[in-house]
Amino acid sequence: xxxxxxxxxxxxxxxxxxxxxxxxxxxxxxxxxxxxxxxxxxxxxxxxxxxxxxxxxxxxxxxxxxxxxxxxxxxxxxxxxxxxxxxxxxxxxxxxxxxxxxxxxxxxxxxxxxxxxxxxxxxxxxxxxxxxxxxxxxxxxxxxxxxxxxxxxxxxxxxxxxxxxxxxxxxxxxxxxxxxxxxxxxxxxxxxxxxxxxxxxxxxxxxxxxxxxxxxxxxxxxxxxxxxxxxxxxxxxxxxxxxxxxxxxxxxxxxxxxxxxxxxxxxxxxxxxxxxxxxxxxxxxxxxxxxxxxxxxxxxxxxxxxxxxxxxxxxxxxxxxxxxxxxxxxxxxxxxxxxxxxxxxxxxxxxxxxxxxxxxxxxxxxxxxxxxxxxxxxxxxxxxxxxxxxxxxxxxxxxxxxxxxxxxxxxxxxxxxxxxxxxxxxxxxxxxxxxxxxxxxxxxxxx
Length: 447
Ligand code: ADP
Description:
Layout: E1 4-7, H1 11-23, E2 27-33, H2 40-44, E3 47-52, H3 63-73, E4 77-79, H4 89-97, E5 101-102, H5 107-114, H6 116-125, H7 141-151, E6 155-159, E7 168-171, H8 174-192, E8 197-201, E9 207-215, E10 221-233, E11 236-242, H9 249-266, E12 270-279, E13 282-289, H10 296-303, H11 307-315, E14 332-339, E15 351-352, E16 355-357, E17 364-368, E18 375-376, E19 383-391, H12 394-407, E20 409-411, H13 417-425, H14 427-431, H15 438-446
Parallel strand pairs: 1-2, 1-4, 2-3, 4-5
Antiparallel strand pairs: 6-7, 6-8, 9-10, 9-12, 10-11, 11-14, 12-13, 14-19, 15-18, 16-20, 17-19
Helix pairs in contact: 4-5, 7-8, 12-13
Bound molecules: adenosine-5'-diphosphate.
Adenosine-5'-diphosphate binds near residues 164 and 203.
């Protein structure tokens, strides 16, 4: 097992990784920008190294500074968390070249899944059903017209290097196609440094359902069930739950089986998530994330498996030590992503947290790096806390979540706690009757 792990991230996930390490008797190294000198993970880690000024490009994405920090402190592994360098194949390569273990899949698998066109192609070859669309990149208007005619309008133009819900444009008709294509292309070029785009059928009422997998170095792969992540704003997840309110045990077993078979063929190592749009009883692959995800705690609460610990164990060469039949699903879990944003306007609200009181009690978990007096910096993602509840049933889980949201005090800044409180009261959410467009549709109707 590793003796010392460097955590190449910040915020709640850095703290989450630190906690997993300490539970395993592993020492930790925090790296941080000057804006994060007072961050919780920096205070709690065994060692801390400042790697640059506030902009992520000069600190959390600064590969030479992070590698130097690992070398100076003698870390034998690096955990990238999510975002930042977690899905940069080049980073995984550089880490390995320095004799340090990258806690994640192979660089080859990161590279494959990082290109969404190649990922869809691989999924198809591995027997995973995909969203109908172009077979490869779209190079001109004529090709776009031909593909759109084949799959039918509306269509979605997506960036091959896309992520974070950005770089997608809908075209409802042939007239809108050329403009959508050129906007998508220039936005993709500006955001991701690549203007390669592809086309997919734009599904009208899909649910986002994703399957969590874990693989070790010896060809063992298991799935840990699904997460339903259909409550989204701007294609970004707001609330996630497990199990999905609509999936049957048979469907779970079937899609889980398809994914495990594919990942076994691929010899996938570590934690990964295969994302689908689920509509009319069928699954359509959209992408695979080769890292730990923000919403991993809901899976941990229903399976009792510590995903970050498992990532570290398999990266160190330990076998999973259990098989699919050992994995049991218990109760229901829901996570609310709490952002430093206004609940109505979604305007960012960085600043000092003047008072802080996290909720507790049966079935409640808070993953957050906040404390009273902490200043939320304006430079990074607005996620400041994840509130996760677990209950024997979905109903009990929702009641506990509501109770916890009511108890939660974060003073001095705006947060999305009120948005979550109103979501939990909504009859559609209570019934589980929502799709990926539900939140934006509902917010538009209330305006
Ligand atoms: P990203 O990598 O940017 O997160 P994804 O491909 O994972 O992009 O898609 C994010 C979200 O965008 C999905 O959960 C869904 O809400 C929406 N989306 C993506 N593809 C489609 C599609 N073909 N039809 C309808 N919605 C889609």
